[in-house]
Amino acid sequence: MTTNSAEPLIDQADEKSTARYIPVRAGLYPIFVAAFVVVFVISNITASKGVTIGPLVTDGAFFLFPIAYVIGDVLAECYGFKATRVAIWTGFASALGAVIAFYIAIWLPAADFYENQEAFSTVLGLVPQIVAASLAGYAVGQLLNAWVLTKMKNRDASAPLWQRLMGSTVVGEFGDTLVFCLIAATAIGISTLPDLINYVVVGFVWKTAMEAILLPVTYSVVGWVKKREL
């Protein structure tokens, strides 16, 4: 009787003395999400600079956004719309958190020996209009990109991958560029309709062209991820 009643107590003691952790599933998804978030946060800073290259009018993030769409394509093609949507909203929240942190750091009183407060404020004191444009364009463009790609795949999974990649890119990049440019144009000094049209067209054509150029890279990454994860 004594032995039988003691056994459950011993088991409970052993269970309480053992630390338990939630297992981490091995996979590439968290790495792609991290890269996705980093690209977007950096883009928020670099996009605040207006850039003119010959007759072309764009912003300082023009070379980063194609990378974000390549990563978005890989996420949508390999992990589906729901998983990609989580990544998109994670990037959205992270960028918003970064902006709040920037403003807190600017607001904090500078030390006597710190001589770069004005430059610090100029670079990281992102114009609210730019922040709103970037967040809105990002959310609209990336969600459209992921939604179109997965819809095309669900409708005909046997269709060539390039059709899904380019079809989703055209829709997503147009939505992203149009929303961002309409909101941000005046903040970076664009005040005329011709310049606004130039800004939208250049941004859309550039990003879509870069996606086409990077298509072999996207193909390779998608193939590698599927081979490793499936």
UniProtKB/TrEMBL annotation:
Membrane topology value: Multi-pass membrane protein
Transmembrane segments annotated in the record for this chain: 26-47, 53-75, 87-110, 130-149, 170-190, 196-225
InterPro entries in UniProt: YhhQ
Protein location: Cell membrane
Domain of life, source organism: Bacteria
Keywords: Cell membrane, Membrane, Transmembrane, Transmembrane helix, Transport
NCBIfam families noted in UniProt: queuosine precursor transporter
Family: Belongs to the vitamin uptake transporter (VUT/ECF) (TC 2.A.88) family. Q precursor transporter subfamily.
Job of this protein: Involved in the import of queuosine (Q) precursors, required for Q precursor salvage.
PANTHER family (UniProt xref): QUEUOSINE PRECURSOR TRANSPORTER-RELATED (PTHR34300:SF2)
Listed name of the protein: Probable queuosine precursor transporter
UniProt source species: Corynebacterium propinquum
